[in-house]
Amino acid sequence: MKLYTRISVAVMATLLGPVTASGQGAPQDSVRSDEEAVRVRGVVTDITTRRPLQFAEIEIFDFEDEPRLAWEGVSDSTGAFFGPRLRPSLYQVRAIALGYQTLTHMVALSGYGAADLQIEMSPEALELEPLVVVTRQRSRLESSGFYERRQRGFGHSLNRAEIEQRHPAYVTDLMRMMPGVSVAPGRMGGGGILRMRGGCIPEVIMDGVRMVQPVRLDDVLQVSDLEGIEVYGPGTSPLAYSHSNCGTVLAWTRDPGSTDGRPWSWKRAGAAAGFLLIGFFLTR
Prior knowledge:
By secondary structure, the protein is an alpha+beta fold. It has helices at 140-144, 146-152, 160-166, 217-220, 266-282; strands at residues 2-7, 11-15, 38-46, 57-62, 68-74, 80-86, 89-96, 103-111, 113-121, 156-159, 181-184, 193-196, 203-206, 209-210, 226-232, 248-253. The chain contains five helices and 16 strands. The strands form five sheets. Strands 10-15-16-13-14 form a five-stranded mixed β-sheet. A four-stranded mixed β-sheet has the order 1-9-3-6, with no helix packed on it. The longest helix is centred in the C-terminal third of the chain and has 17 residues, at 266-282.
């Protein structure tokens, strides 16, 4: 930030310090005569862009005896200001502009003629409040459209909080009380098989992947693995998953890291691999 003056040839001036703003209308008693007065004028600009600054306030204080306001005014659209004739004396010039650092400068005027001031102002750095940006990763249920489908009112669904409230021992325990759904006991201690009204076996889709039928959910999933489950009867399955005339079960597993370090159980991994192998050989 700096302020410097250019003085016309017929005028002597001495710079003594920093500066501030401008205006119109000066006390006439500060002028002794035209022969012993100096016309003060100048231009206010941005020190970085060199563009003129409009509405900068300029104040000139007479410091010969005791400080008093000798003139004040405002710069125009070109950044220029035109002061009155001032008597030879020591003056303080002050420039003030919104968004800029205030400048003050001491100038000693003597002789006659005109004193041209060129005031260059530095932008003032604004201290802003710290900005904290918080982002939240969408859960698997949100990204899969679980809650949008629930709002439509078709089928029956449970999210993780609702699952924990029921304290089920097995995944199939969650569906024993759902209308139109029954659980047939499995053989040799295996997991139960879901059946819809009429005894048909619904299609099971896990995390968007269709499983080979019949699927025993208790052999594939543990309750701790489950983030949400949806059960749809015949004719109510979502269009993207309506591949069966019996009904559809959508199972969504928990996000990685949300199951106490066990996002994928060995039991579930082995069962899923077995179903995939069976499906591979059946489609050959």
